[in-house]
Amino acid sequence: MHRHGAVRSQSRRGECYDNALPGTTQAESLWSLLKTEVLELREWPVFADPADAQASIADYFDYYNHDRLHSSIGYQTPYHAHRQLLKTTALNCPA
After folding, report:
1. Region Disordered: what ranges (predicted)?
2. Domain layout of the chain by residue ranges
């Protein structure tokens, strides 16, 4: 890594929130669900090739955002909740 100029991004031991960014919890949840709802259900090898991996993950992201209901947002899809938030925000914004 050093030879290529890459810098490690790693938290200190016992400090899991060192690298936390806004939305990190949701991102970690998404990756966890992808692993349990897609990857662990497939036989090895999980993907035929990189194009298959990309298409499969894109399909899951589409499902996650447009079809999968999330209890943390009132059993709505993220897409629907975001659209509702945009409407509310637009109504509360001064012109």
Report:
1. 1-22
2. 24-92
